[in-house]
Amino acid sequence: MARRKISYIISGIIIGGIIGSALSYFLSGIFPKGPVKNLFFSALKVGFSAIELNLGFFNITFGIGINITLVTVIFVFLTIYLLHRL
Fold first, then answer.
1. Which one, of 70, 60, 67, 62, lies nearest residue 27 by Cα?
2. Which of 25, 75, 83, 84 is deepest in the core (most CB within 10 A)?
């Protein structure tokens, strides 16, 4: 049962994050500039910049970044709730 709850949470984060980010990107172009747009669509950037390891014959670049908006957070929780209720 615990594995099932964890799978709901992980699936909710991934699905809700994708849908919330896409909707946030779409709606940010529609809303007029102002405090409401800033509240819902300003992104908090989490992650680190690219780190490059160059060995001459072999080059590896590592980096990850996540943009979190309020709309994305709402959709993540909504998706987790809906997956749990099904």
1. 70
2. 75
pLDDT tens string, the chain, 86 residues long: the values are 677 778 888 888 888 888 888 888 888 888 888 888 888 888 888 888 888 988 888 899 999 988 888 989 999 898 888 888 87
The reported pTM is 0.72
Q: Six-digit token pair at 20? A: 């919330």
* Residue 48 β-bridge partners: 64
At 1 the pLDDT is: 61
The CA-based angle 44-50-52, given to 5 degrees, is: 170
